[in-house]
Amino acid sequence: MTDYHGIPAAQAEVDFAIPFLDEDIPLYVDPFLLWASPSLQDNSLHTMIVNSFNHLGHLAQQGQFDRAKQILISLSECNEVGLGTSRTRKGKPIGDRTADSILSLFKDVPQYERRGFIHFEEIQFFVDHIAKDRISDFACSLLKSFLIDYTIDQSKKLGIPLGKTSVPVYDYKTNQIVEEQVDLPTNPENGSAITFVPKRWLRFNPWLDFDEYYTDYIPKERIRPDGKPERIEVLTFNRHNYGVVRDYVLAKERQKLDCHNDPLFKQIPIMSAKAGLNAIRSLSSGLADRSDKKYEQESARLMASLLYPHLDFAGTQERTDGGVLIRDLIFYNNRGHQLLDDLWQRYESRQVVFELKNVYEVDGGHINQLNRYLSEHFGRFGVILTRRPLKSSMMKNTIDLWASQRRCIIALSDDDVELMVNLYEGKQRDPIDVINMKYVEFTRKCPS
Amino acid sequence: MKSESEIDNFERIESQLKVFRREIAGLSKKKPNDGVNKFKLAYINNAIDQANAILADQRPLQGFEHFNPDDVPTNSDVAFVLAQYTEAIFRVRQEHTTSHRGKYYWIIKNKISEYETKVSSLFAYREKE
Question: Is ipTM strictly over 0.90?
């Protein structure tokens, strides 16, 4: 999203998860993180979520079951945050039966009937079709009023453009969902509103996790003596044995100090980087034994980690040029390094493309392929990731491109990648310094 | 040497180069291909620049001025250069000191001065101080 607006924000430096415009981020808001947070604000927001959720139970108990159900269904999807696994940033709300099943907990489980929930994510232990995505959506819907203010604040800090839009918001005072006109960033593709979520609330799996509960905590032999119980059997068992769920939740509460948010990107360990380098070194050049595909896999894994946090990895892509299959690595340029700022300003590189060439020798055709691609899609800077250093005639070819079209194409060989891995291990210099070195080397050769 | 203050400066650079060489040699043994960080490189470059001024046309490596931080020099690169410089500086000491009646003195403006020193071999680089 920041890339679309040309805003140089590194994911590692901003407080929120930078959303994608066309798909969800595969992380979820875990309400437990708000409960366990040292921040009083997060704790208060958690209380607000739980109070609002318990109010639905109160409504149901007071004879307003249908109203509670309608609100619950409306809260069950929060498209503005774009979290989860949807490829389209659009989800579906829960159905009537699931909503009934959730609200029935306030009647069927005496503890919930008396005091309500302390951790509303416990509903996943009793209701089918409720998992981390739904928990996250409920939490985000109930927090939306806060998230809107947070998004406006962060957008103003970074200069992200805002537009008038209408979003459904849960009003904590009246316990209703109201349509609010607010200024929020919008998706330029379809005009839908976007809200940001603080990174500190995100996890891949919730701290209170059904899978962990199933594996380590339930007395399976009591539920089904002759084998593994089905999920639905466990849910039914839980409804009649609240104590087992309570013990699990208490155990997890005691371990709250171990509950941390998950990073959006995790660098590979040093051993793994070295193994990746060795794997690349051992590959033959060319297409034999799918070497090109393996080269792409290892290079993508390695480069994404080596260049983090200076370059955020966007993904790999395949394209054809003149009938030849070409594989690329694309990175967002967030100007987090002097070199990247230079590339942005001199070569208008908002994204940096690494073209993978698992060939014995780079020739003029390869350089022209990247040059054509740069013209069409990216700025005027590109990297050829290949096996051996460029021959002097090819080096001259790239210099000529600079002289005639002010294009900068540099090549990284296996030796350069090895140096990057060494720097990654030693931590004395940043691996991106190797790209800077090649860039400086290139500029020295350019005619003044 | 032209003056006692020039000698003091020489001894400061001589000592600095030996300390840097010892530090980088240690790193180079463990990780020869790791890059030297920019902080260390800035101080090493400063010492090399001052050594260049002392050595004038006796510089050990023709064409080498100092390290460019953009070139990502490795531990072994820096260790190699520092070894050359400490030896060149040591030769300057040997050429500018002499013994007289059992004591060692600096030669200032081509004459034995009263500025005392110790035998040159004591100032040779050692891996451990």
Answer: no
